[in-house]
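Support case: adenosine-5'-triphosphate complex. Customer-provided input:
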Amino acid sequence: MALLQLSRVTMRFGGLYAVNELDLSIDAGHLYGLIGPNGAGKTTVFNVITGVYTPTSGDIRFDGEAIAGERCGRITRRGIARTFQNIRLFGEMTVLDNVKVAFDCRQATTLGTAMLRTAAHRREEERVALESLELLKIFKLDHLAGEKAKNLPYGNQRRLEIARAMATAPRVLLLDEPAAGMNPQESIELMDLIRWIRDRFRMAILLVEHNMRVVMGICETVHVLDYGSTIAIGPPAQIQRDPKVIEAYLGGA
Amino acid sequence: MRGGLAAALVVAGLLLLNALFTGAVAPAFALPPYLLQVLCLAGINVTLAVSLNLINGFTGQFSIGHAGFMAIGAYSAAYFTVTFGEAVRAALGFLPAFARDGAVLLVALAIGAFLASIAGFIVGVPSLRLRGDYLAIVTLGFGEIIGVLILNIDAVGGARGYSGIPKLANFFWIYLFAALTILVVYRVVHSSFGRTLVAIREDEVAAEAMGVHTTRAKVISFVVSSALAGIAGGLFAHYLMYVNVRSFTFLKSFEIIIMIVIGGLGSISGSVLGAILYISLTEGLREFAQYRMVLFSLLLVILMIVRPQGILGHKEFVTFLTKRRRSIGAAPGTPGNA
Ligand SMILES: Nc1ncnc2c1ncn2[C@@H]1O[C@H](COP(=O)(O)OP(=O)(O)OP(=O)(O)O)[C@@H](O)[C@H]1O
Ligand SMILES: [Mg+2]
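Agent response - structure generated as follows:
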């Protein structure tokens, strides 16, 4: 049984089938690439998996349990985290607090203990601060912990988005164009980082990315969408030769 | 222990000031009654502004019904005192007079806060589930409904207003609760829970995606804010000894919003400053008679052009002073967030 399984998932906006009868399954430890021309429906797939939208039809299972239609926050707490294509950090908050907020989703503190500053709550806060800094270190952001997120350069904001998603301790990580706006050097570092995360935490990663060098370089499986429908699934080498894929990219663009 | 000492100092300080201002220590120190009243109303406005800032400034939800919660607190607290005050006082006959008054006031305020928080819950749950401007519309309507309801309850005077409320609140109580409100809001904001509130303000979709119980957090924040507004209302009633629905229209709500906008949404000290500035300006401009509100509006417009984020912005007063130079030198702007 796959960790995350989509069966015949459709998302319709009025007359537009943004995602059409999509089948997709990812196992733990897998790096799965989702590509397709602009408007193919990749971000919509993320929104459907994470509960931003309820699919028009179809079944989504995480670890065997149906999750379609659940609230976004609930799905995150189950163990599916994401980043956003159009960076959505908490701009006025510090880099450290951005990560701490995500950590809080696994915490049991209530308003009462927080207000009374109980010893247990203080310990919990110290632990969260420590673990958050540790996480920032992995993403080479620890020296920026006190900066406001909105003041970071683009590449760092992208990395902070991933760090923040990681702080929710996910088993499936959805990355929506993490290399967008990065220079080639940064993209290569990011590739290594994504691979390292996968190996270190054995999580499944679903990667949407326009940078073909990144996708073909690190994904075991590549899934190609066009107009919401699957046109090919397979290992990178096979996808690169697939005439339908070449047609979709060259013909559509 | 340090907290206990600080609390004792604040209470002692307020008691001393109260004695000074009312002329109990020496008549020479007494404030003119008009000035003392302005000072007390300023204290009530501090409570209102700081509590509204929790929901509008820190949580980023736009409520324009704060006066409605204040009205609930004012009327219910006053009703309790008028109806049961004597009985409670009699039961506490063994206590000195000021302690009996204090006890009645505290119970009355607790009732006011409780009922206001219930109202906050009822208004908050349906409207805070939804994103965007629903809260603004619902709270605006709520404020008007509360007004109409009170107008039709004869037991609290209806359109005549509610009079005969004993004067139990004074400078001491008003500023004690202002201090308490600041403490409560400060602690909420500077806790892990406060972190999630600010995250909701910054980006609700992202907050939800990070596993935050956004609806729950918003409702809690709104209920706390409403309860504090209820306390402010109770103090208001027990200070002026008379309340009228006309004191709690949406104009009052806007007044409080103006205070927190002046001071800076998302800054507790900003709200305190805004409340005091608002009162000082509206009272200070009285000598300009009919031009008063024109001048006041002009000042507001100028402030909003010069400092659209309010005087303190998101910062607290202390950091505002110390970090000012640094933030000017910080890297400019954000990369485009498409
Ligand atoms: N909320 C919505 N309402 C209506 N249409 C939508 C909505 N969200 C997405 N769409 C449409 O669905 C289609 C797929 O959009 P989506 O954002 O998923 O594409 P994408 O593959 O992520 O594209 P890109 O590579 O540009 O990010 C587009 O035609 C888009 O206009
Ligand atoms: Mg997209």
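The first helix of chain A runs from residue 42 to 49.

Case will auto-close in a few days if no follow-up is received.
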